[in-house]
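Encode chain A's predicted structure.
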Amino acid sequence: MFSRKWLTCIAGVAGLIATQSASAYVECSPLRVATIMTADGSTYIYWTNGGMGSLSNTGYDRQAILGLATTALTLELTVTVRLADGSSCTGSTQSIVGFALNRS
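Encoded structure for chain A:
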């Protein structure tokens, strides 16, 4: 099987990868969805605080995020949004990389 040295090395690399991916986004919460709009090959979700996020119309998780955003808008729930690294929670056209409904 694996020696203790190899297991320590594997655990160290896994820790580095987890740390790297953990900082690859900016998390914004709580936000409220104000408007959902599609134009120019992208879908835009506007927040009540004035910011906005965007989804590519070809993104693999677009339908899921759009469904969650519609639910949040309809039921007036807050959301937690993950934006691409270096983004601002109040900026415009920020790339959405994660989306979650919150209990309100």
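The chain has one domain: 25-101.
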